[in-house]
Amino acid sequence: MSLQMVSVISNSSLLQPGFSLLNFDGHVFLFGQKGWPKRSCPTGVFLLDIKKNELKMKPAFFSKDSCYLPPLRYPALCMLRSKEESDEYQYIIHGGKTPNNDISDKIYVMSLVSKSSKKATFQCIEKDIGGDVPEARYGHTINIVHSRGKSMSVIFGGRTYTPLAQRTTEKWNSVVDCSPSVFLVDLEFGCCTSYILPEFQDGLAFHVSVARNDTVYILGGHSLQNNTRSPSLYRLKIDLPLGSPSVTCSILPGGIAVSSGIVTQIRDTEFVLIGGYQSDSQKRLVCNTLVLGDGTIEIVERESPDWTPDIKHCRIWFGCDMGKGSMLLGIPGANKQVISDANYFYILKCKGAEEDKEEELTAQICSQTSSEDPGDSTPLEDSEEFCFSAEANSFDVDDADTYNEDDEEDESETGYWITCSASCNLDINTWVPFYSTELNKPAMILCSSGAGHWVHAQCMDLSESMLLHLSEANVKYFCNEHPDLQKGLQTPKKVKQLKKRPMKPLRRKAARRLTTPVKKSFPRRLFE
């Protein structure tokens, strides 16, 4: 195992905990950036171009018939092949959190439409699902199982917001574990069925799951209800006959109490488990090999890489599988770098040197062929996720297509939970709706002072009628911190009054003329 540090040349602030990596034709793409996408890359999907231990992010594009895909962090993600032995595949994305902390319940299917040396175009389709639709969640897993010539998706675990009927003022936006139900999703026919199994007593999130044929293995995970990491190892076996599917669960010995672990596949039936946490204050630096058989799994400890002192002493770490035995790991660098949200990144290769050379040679051949084609109290679990992707391989892309980080705005400055003024006291954990128009986010209004900035309507002591008036009328608003400016701009200019001359009193004869009735006179006829 080898550990190599990489330097992020541009857009390092977009690589934050919760991102996902997608692999198409040997190239890795980032999905789930920090903040909302900007005009430099409206899709929010980036190519990770790695050359000479330097990482650059270049924008990708969507086809015209694609649906809108928000930047989702901590989603469930897996690879879907059109056939079991086919080279064509897609990615399924379910759930995740948006930059506004909204949780998604949608299912998307992403595929590569065209790829050239300068441009990659994707197609994203939203799937309509009926039946027992899983609730919105994040920190869960999705796997594909094959049985009797059929394929289905298996969704399990995750976290979601507390139901509205159970919310209190103190914990309005708190999260809870999802119910420990297993969902089978048939993407071809758009139906979903849930199963309640007695082996699952508590909900789990940020667990590890691997699948082979008709079996899914679930390892570890964190439970908010008990604040524990499950040491159990579950085996889900799915049978897909002509009638209703059958789902059975068994508890196997030899589990590992770990959460937020990262898994990469190094052989057809062999995986490597690295990272995660074994307690709230301790990372897990031990590595394990998972060997899958026909309905069996063997977990053995393997030699760990030579961790750097920065990795050993940092409190949190995050990353994602790059596929084919490689991982992208990140650790906070706020104490050592000028940029507060900058991170250190490493590429960990779990395969041997000979195997890496063979894969690099194969990747170079694939790359040459494809270039000819036309076309402040965050839980530790919330800093990691488990997802499958693939290894990064470089190809020539002009620097003119590089994403411009200057167009990015910090999510902390443009979000709903900012400190809008000196008197702002809104807290995401204790906030409750104040206006009738609010649901899960506070109402905000733009102050027109200078370049403009957003403030909470509640912090400005605005009544609901005034808030509605300002939102409907085309007028400028100025917050309480700019009262002088407000008076100067909103007070109308003083207009000089015209002097009116006094009217002269009327004489008696003129007054009589006005009061004496006028006799009408008619002209005589010219001809009688």
Automatic annotation (TrEMBL):
Region Disordered, residue ranges: 494-514
Keywords, comma-separated and alphabetical: Chromatin regulator, DNA recombination, Metal-binding, Nucleus, Zinc, Zinc-finger
GO molecular function terms noted in the UniProt entry: sequence-specific DNA binding; zinc ion binding
The keyword Zinc-finger is annotated on this UniProt entry: yes
InterPro entries: Gal_Oxase/kelch_b-propeller, Kelch-typ_b-propeller, RAG2, RAG2_PHD, Znf_FYVE_PHD
Main location per the UniProt record: nucleus
Entry's Gene Ontology BP terms: chromatin organization; V(D)J recombination
Residues covered by the Recombination activating protein 2 PHD domain: 415-492
Keyword Zinc-finger: yes
Places the protein is found: Nucleus
Chain intervals with Basic residues compositional bias: 494-512
One GO location term (cellular component): DNA recombinase complex
List of residues binding Zn(2+): C420, C424, C447, H453, H456, C459, C479, H482
UniProt family annotation: Belongs to the RAG2 family.
Protein name per UniProt: V(D)J recombination-activating protein 2
Gene: Rag2
